[in-house]
Amino acid sequence: MRMSTLFLRTLREDPAEAEVASHKLLVRAGYIRRAAPGIYSWLPLGLKVLAKIEAVVRDEMDAIGAQEVHFPALLPREPYEATGRWTDYGPNVFRLKDRKEADYLLAPTHEEMFTLLVRDLYSSYKDLPAMLYQVQTKYRDEARPRAGLIRGREFIMKDSYSFDIDEAGLDASYLKHREAYRRIFDRLGLDYVIVAAEAGAMGGSRSEEFLHPCEIGEDTFVRSAGGYAANVEAVATPVPPEQDASGIGPAHVEDTPDTPTIETLVAAANQIAPRQDQPWTAADTLKNVVVALVSPTGERELLVVGLPGDRQVDAKRLEAAVFPAEVDQTTEADFAAHPELVPGYIGPQVLGPNGAPRGENAGGAVRYLLDPRVVPGTAWVTGANEAGKHVFDLVAGRDFTADGVIDVAEVREGDEAPDGSGPLELARGIEIGHIFALGQKYAKALELSVLDSNGKAVTVTMGSYGLGVTRVLAAIAESTSDEKGLAWPVTVAPAHVHVLATGKDEAVFSTAEQIATELTSTGVEVLYDDRVKVSAGVKFADSELLGVPYALVVGRGLAEGVVEVRHRATGEREELAPADAAPRLRELLSEAGLG
Amino acid sequence: MRMSTLFLRTLREDPAEAEVASHKLLVRAGYIRRAAPGIYSWLPLGLKVLAKIEAVVRDEMDAIGAQEVHFPALLPREPYEATGRWTDYGPNVFRLKDRKEADYLLAPTHEEMFTLLVRDLYSSYKDLPAMLYQVQTKYRDEARPRAGLIRGREFIMKDSYSFDIDEAGLDASYLKHREAYRRIFDRLGLDYVIVAAEAGAMGGSRSEEFLHPCEIGEDTFVRSAGGYAANVEAVATPVPPEQDASGIGPAHVEDTPDTPTIETLVAAANQIAPRQDQPWTAADTLKNVVVALVSPTGERELLVVGLPGDRQVDAKRLEAAVFPAEVDQTTEADFAAHPELVPGYIGPQVLGPNGAPRGENAGGAVRYLLDPRVVPGTAWVTGANEAGKHVFDLVAGRDFTADGVIDVAEVREGDEAPDGSGPLELARGIEIGHIFALGQKYAKALELSVLDSNGKAVTVTMGSYGLGVTRVLAAIAESTSDEKGLAWPVTVAPAHVHVLATGKDEAVFSTAEQIATELTSTGVEVLYDDRVKVSAGVKFADSELLGVPYALVVGRGLAEGVVEVRHRATGEREELAPADAAPRLRELLSEAGLG
Question: Does the keyword Zinc-finger apply (chains A, B) (predicted)?
Fold first, then answer.
């Protein structure tokens, strides 16, 4: 590749909409361009990196015996209807009609089609196990596409699916994928943590995420020194034992003027009704948070979540818990329809089973769910459903109950791990892979069974395994780049060596050309900056922005018989004779694991 | 690849919906599966053939200096609105809205996006010429998807685009693509004819199609011994000289009862008003055909086409001529709205400029267009707009005129070529490539200009070049298959050698395995039929159906030291010693152009 003709223009300015380093740099370095929100075009250098990542993924999939196929992106409604996902995906899926008014979608994932294909071809236990995969363009109509390639609306995924006769077979297929993913990320030089995860829209019994630890990641995960690791959505709060409330007197309402927040309430409680043993804290209050939910079919419902006042509701845990419904902002109209909800002073007495029987008044009593910590026998300070009044000694199980439990309070640094393996620490990460032991959900819905050795029909047990190819590219860019630009590992770089001819000397260009040719002839991928009217400074800046792992600078030093090798990642520089350049670069590439 | 684990099941029966050989065989041989009308899933063997075709295409595109990029399939409305194609494509494009109600389409082709990208990056004449391409999934909501991969709704295309400063540059880029296409089809072993074509939706001054001559092709083309070749839509009928009508008497209406067809009219004319010099023939009658058109925005209009009675209206020429409107069936309602149109007896007197002034009555006069042969001075027998009556000696230009000319009469075997190069012969073909000298249509609409050497802004001149990758695959299957199955050329076959172990003898399997391993180790791609409980007959039939170019049969003969090489395309068989098998196969592959 020659810079003089390469379809590339680097930008000095960050694109206006870009917030994260990978997004800024991939655009500035001419790897991608935005076509629409969350939808990107790939330029020559970007496409080369993408192809290299795809090759590693294919290689490891083939190595575990998975076979590549390719499904359409445009698919009819029916299979997704059969599994309920046509509805469950709500507004997250792009839907359209063809000229005959038949319903189609742009597939966000392909469980249904793989299930149907295997049903179409296979009929006996002897055909199993089977693993199939594709590297394919997927579509999701994200509410908030962000961070460039990290959360896009059109993106490339490798998705694979396993088909087994029983749970033991699924375990083996699941493990093969887990190991293949480890090898893929290892080869790509991408740091990762495997965490327990929620299955979400996918369904199934068990799932794990591969997270690339990274400040800009959307996923929060926890880990303990004892080896526990989970996505924050998957952390189950340990349920404390029930309490004996026999010593607690009857609930009593107190005037607590101007206490719409937990802080003001705690301060007031310690003044009005001080406790003997210790002062009231936020953890003694029961906070009731109103949440608006929209079902996939568009129905709106209010929900109140009751949780200890020292914890916030975690938005992502809430989203996962209410799936397939979506969380929406509450509005004035919501409160107007429920005058029993007095903002700042909401208490359980008007909610769920404690409130008006459902359907009796306009809205019926609002559904009420409790944090797992609010076990029977615990006593709380909480709203009395009247402005300026709170109720004290309101005992769970005695004075109020709920419609059920919801585990959506924030997980905090230092909380005990659910498995008792020590205190949790929190970190953020980018989800780069997600593996699911689906079980029989799809096989049942789409009637995929095979005959076992006794001639009896057995429902097939499935797994599904996703790896975000374009997101992995962004994660690598994010983790390897610096303030000067991209800095690709050799495995995925768009070229191995960036040869720069600087200055105007004919000898510089002919030597650079000669070394570039020599490298190319031995299989080294060279990007050659042969531009004649471009200053050395611009060439250096471009080279650092583009992030090819090694640069060879042929310039002023040539007169003294010296050229320079620059290591992009470390900034290291080596001077050497022109004749030594190609051998030294091949040595460096070989040390970096190439060839 | 081992048949025992390959994700493949061959079918003995043709799929119900399949009409053409390639479609039947690709499904039966387990290369593709139908997911929806005109939408296919790719199975492992199909995907391998596809990858090989794509590699050849990429190789030749790279060789002419085109650079690969990749655009989204899901694109916003705006760029297509700017060029008018959002509307022009009518129902042929899949349209959808995202969750914010913004309009999107699934791109049928990408002129707009490439134009915008080049505008985004380039600004000077020094940046040109540039050629860019992609291999990408395209979408068209075809009214009649048919013939499997030949006319699909989701399909793979290589599309490329050239950007030049002037017409001379465009000529050079166009020629490079033309030559690259020739090399691609030559390498793929696919016979083709280059014909002049209509530009259709694409616009532009000049275009040529690459057609693979084939009975099941949708395109009809003509060629003359003198070298003229054109798609039938692009044939311009030579316009005869105007006639002197001074000797022709006034038009006269005659009773012609029961003559709603040209045949009955000619017979009646020869009875009622016989001509002195020669009998009336169909060529003396003026047939007026009513056509319903629907504009891209859904407006319906009637049109009458007047042409000599010995010619039919050609549906494809009509479609091309009325683009972007679509042709629809006429209905009773159409005729009810225009009582002046008397079926079987329609004449020009009530049409177009001869009819009621537009808008005076309900529908106004119907638009009237004439075949180019109906020049001023020619006299015709035609309908008198009353059942059972025709008018004689109605002279074009004297007694009637039209709103314009439309060249949509059928082209017939033996018609003179427009360039006078001899009589035309007709043939059918599959369109496998289409190259367009677009000119400045897109660059103007999207304001793509660069500064020339004087610093003056110059609109860029473009070309666009399409090659149907999935359609090429089907065309190869169509042209190489026989009644037994597929028969791939070595270049694109999913494997080079199909090793068959037949019988139950252990030695057979170990010898077959050994030869397969030997071949694989020297880079030969082997499909090994290692299935143990499958009869030799089934293995032979599968092998012929799958169409790997060479089969090596290890079976009964092994005891006598003999194995057999079978040539799939010719049916030829060679017996040889097991030790000679691998060298002989390598020799055959090398003769076939491999490696």
Answer: no
